[in-house]
Design brief:
Blueprint: H1 2-25, E1 29-31, E2 34-41, E3 50-59, E4 65-72, E5 75-86, E6 89-94, E7 99-101, E8 106-109, E9 115-121, E10 130-137, E11 141-149
Parallel strand pairs: 2-11
Antiparallel strand pairs: 1-2, 2-3, 3-8, 3-9, 4-7, 4-10, 5-6, 5-9, 10-11
This protein binds copper (II) ion.
Amino acid sequence: MKHSLAGAALAVFVAGLPLTAFAADAPSIAVGALKIENAFARPTPNGATVGVGYLTIVNGGNAPDRLVSATSDVSAKTQIHEMKMQDGVMQMRELTNGLAIPAGATVALHPGGDHIMFVDLKHQVKPGDVINVTLNFQKAGKVSVPFKAAASMGAMAPSGAMGGMNMQ
Ligand SMILES: [Cu+2]
């Protein structure tokens, strides 16, 4: 009896841990009808000139919005990139007209897909570093979002959110 109780308590503790760490690492940020979630960056190798960041944008309103531009304190330029299949090869391309955020939609920028590109890095992005990004939405306006660098270069999610899913 004592053993099973202890086991149950431990299971609850362990199951609750990633969520707690996740909330601390990537706070949900509201701006207008939008909510920014899961923002994180990948650490970069020494000497790299570009870095990458990901986030999820939830449009809880009934009007479409658009992420038109971004700036960051780590790079000279910050671009919005999409991934597209071209001649059988996955290639990335700048979305010069920005990224549509349809009404009621959840738009997730995640590894392997669309992303925020930090171009002409001023310095290396190390695990745990926080990149201060300003996102500029057509309707919702500007919002500052911290992109914390994950623990590994292959991180698929913010540190702590899916500890077992990092690909080294
Ligand atoms: Cu890119």
